[in-house]
Every structure is written in C-alpha cells, then in structure tokens.
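Exercise 3.2. Students should predict the tertiary structure of the chain below and write it as structure tokens, then compare their answer with the key that follows.

Predict this chain's 3D structure.
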Amino acid sequence: MARDRLTEMQAPTTQVVDTLAGQYPLLGIALRHHRTTRGEPRAFADKPYLVELYCDAPRIEGFDAMKCVQVGWSELLVQLALERAGWGGRICAYVLPSFQLRDRVVQRRVHPLLEQVPAYTAKLAHGDIGSVRHKRFGQGALLFLGSNTVNDFIEFSADVLVVDEYDRCVQEHLAFARDRLRASSAPQLFRIGNPTLPREGVAALYEQSDGRKWHHRCTSCGERQPLDWLVNVVTRNDAGRWELRDKARAEDGTLRPVCRRCGRPFDRVAEGGQWVAERHEQHRRGYHISRLDVLSQDLRPLWREWVEAQGSGAKLVAFYASVLGLPYAPEGSAVTIDMLTRAACGDPMDEGGDARLAHEQVVAGIDVGSRALNVDICVVRQREDDERAGRVGRWTGEVGTFDALYDLLVRYRVNVAVVDARPETRAAQQLRDRCTETGVCDVWLCQFHATDRVGAQDYGLRQDYERKLVTVDRTQLLDATMEDARVHPARRTWPEDVWRVQGWADQLQAPKRVMNEAGTRYVWSEGNLDDHYRFSDAYSRVAADILATQGAYHG
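Answer key:
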C-alpha cells in the first residue's frame, strides 16, 4: 500500500508524492504545501504512525486519541480542518478549552500558515484572513471556539467537529457542540488530549474505541509489539529499585527498548511499524501514542525524569500523561503492568500438555466471553516459604467452543476446572456433566454473591457439592488475585511469552477498584473494556483453592 511505502522513505520522490497526493488529498497537502510552526515541511521520518491518520482522517467518521505531548497530533488536526473546509467545502469547528487559548493558537499557529503558505492563502475569501473566531476558507468555513463560552456552541451548524485538549474542556458545553453536527449529512468528530484520570475524559473515550496501539518490530526476532515503559524499558531489581533493561548500551550510549519476546535490545525503526486494534468489535477508532513511539526521542532524559519522579505523586502523574500518554493509577487500585512484568517470568507456554503433566496438579479457569472462551491453565505447587500454594502458568489463550475446551482439559490433564456459570449456563452444565461421566476432571460452575463476611478462602467461598456450584464474592476474589500478582513469585507466575496472547495484559489491568455509586462499598469496575483474562485468572485461583480442600497438592 502507498502508506507502507511512505513509512519506509525519509525523502519521497516527486513521483511518489504525486501518486500519494492523488490517493490521499490531506497527505498530499502535507507533503506539497504545509509548513510546521518552525517553517519546515511536514516530515514523517520519525513519526511514521502519522501516515495512517493523514491517509484516512478525511474519509472516516472520526477518532479519539489518548496521547502524550509533542507527537504531531494537534498539527494534524489543524491541517485536517483546513483541508475539510478549503478543499472539501465543509464547515469545520475547532474547539479548545478556553477562548483565551483559542486566541493564542489561532494567532500563533493558524494565522502564520494562512499568511505564509500560498496554497492556504489562495483559499481565503478576497485575501481576508478573518477574525480569530470565524473564517471563510475555500467553499467552506472555519470556526475556532473556546469551550468555556457556552454561547459559542448554540449559534452554528457544522460538518466537522475537532476537540483539542479534551480533558481540559468544559464537558457540559461539549454536549452542545456535538449537537451542532446533527444537521450534517456526513458528520465527523475528532477528539484528542492528554489523559488525566482513569475512566475519565479522553481515557474513557479510548476505552470505548477499538483501541489502536502503534506496534514496533523487533530488529532481532521480528516480534511486533507496542512499547510499554515498564515492559520494554525499565524493571525492578531484587531490591525493589528501578533499573534499565538495556544493560548493554549501544556504543554511543543510546538506550534501546528490550523485546518482550527475545529479551534483546532493538532499534526503533519505521520499517514494520503498524497500528493494531485491540478491540475489533468496537466500531469507532481510538489511538494511543507515547513519546516512546517518536523515533527521534532519546530515552535517556526520559529515564532521568522517571527516576526523579519516584516518591512524588504529582511528578508521576505528569510523567504518565506527558511522556506515556496514560492516566496514572496508583498501585492498589488495579493490577498494574509492573505486577504483570514481574510475574511473567515462567517457562515458555506449554503448547503440548499430555504426559508431561501426568504427575502435576493442574487447574483451569475459564471465562465465557462474547466470542470465545478465555482459558488460564496452571500447575499448583506448595512452597515451603508461603502458606498458600502458588499457581504456575502453563498455558493462556482462547478456544472457540466448549468441545474444544473439553479437548483442552483432556490434553492438559486438568484436575479441577472452574468455569463462569453465565451467560452460557446450559453449555457450562453440559461440560460439567460430560467431564463427570468420563472422569476427565472435576468441573465447577462459579457464580457471584456479595457478602460482608470474609470466608475461610478470603473471598466468601461456598460450595454446593450436589450441583457442583461454587459461590464467591466478586470484589473479594479480585482483591485476592491482585494480591497474588503483587507478591509474585510465591503466588502467581505466567509464562514469559504470555505477552503474545492478544489482549492478555490489557484485560488483566481493565478492572479498577472504585467506590460504588452509593458510596457504601468498594467494587471492581471494568467500564466498557474486556476483562476475560482477569476472570480466567480469578477462576483458576478458585480451582486451586478447591483442589486444596481435597488435599491434593504436591510439594
């Protein structure tokens, strides 16, 4: 594809530019005409992730982007507004948090473009640059608005709405702004910003999107992966102190990310990079971008910022938002990527099972998702230095049917399995009965029931032996399994290559511990995110505890 060719070329030839401009008008304007605020041509050499956006933005209904600072996104949307109005003949409204900020952005960023770029100057009506609020541009119009003035949102009709710095805008006024699109035959809505709080603002919008992340290709083993600060750049040592993963620096001292699969440092390059959606069932596009994705970004100053931020909540909030493009969630409110990084240290996933597990005690947790069964299979082992047995992950993944799940239980010699009782209650009961008749394994159905009493198993576990039904307190169970991950490796490990399981890390982190609406109790809420692997892990914990009541642990 043309966009793939561009990511591989630092200086496209005139012929390539002409070809791309014919296929992707916004990209053509960027390459042929546009100038940055520094007066330089728009280049993509260190920001290959922008190419898809320049190609697709004029053609789609919009997107939501959770971003860090200085990644080219605001400039993209300014160009998009100009293209939609000047070449597309659309009415485009560009919203900023306040009219004071609106004035500065228009005067410092937009007006110089209109005055100095001939292709833009030619689109001005009679050469008139217009006011900071309203401009006739080509066959369309540009409106620049401040979200703190409600009157700005009740006097216009628009085809395209751009909201910049979404979390800083007055949210109740944005609802009026969106109403301005209702009369358009082809409305487009673009929202971007630095995140502030989990499940709030642009972070909530991203959670409701298809969740695209920029994947880099490891130049050593070819693994494609999104770069995560805690997975690819830093780690905790045995003393609990942060250290760099890239211990063998390049000759010039350059820090490199370390591959999650092969464990070797690799160079960040444009070749092989691509956007990958995590939630294909969601229609609206969503993007997350961090400074790690900017190929020209030196990682050394980021490491110094990280070290300086330790012990300061305010500095950590700033680092997560400005550098990582993420909302900061203190440890204790969710399973964190740091916990998962420390726990994903076991042997590679066992893809065979069978006889090698004949003398082990094996449990499985199964969560019933909307399109698949998410499975977590562990070996249970008692450790002398811990009163509770540990779960050592052997296989994590998904299967499409209960028949395939049955075959999995047979192949991995599972002793006890716990499966979500809903929503496929009948299918789960049939699996339970089939396993009982064939003697394959002991299958229990799990349901939730809130209780104020902390039971013998720490989460109110009750067993109905006749129906093979286990009842647990959902909140207490998720509390217990987060604690398992926190005290690794005594309680919970996963295979070192579990990162390759799509959605695993995101789903483990999805539920957040929050106060309920009545303000009476803490609960775990996943919002609109998938959390199937979080619950398959929880069900394997229940299976391990049921196994303990049978006195079946091996030392």
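Discussion points: The first strand starts at residue 62 and ends at 67. The radius of gyration is 27 Å.
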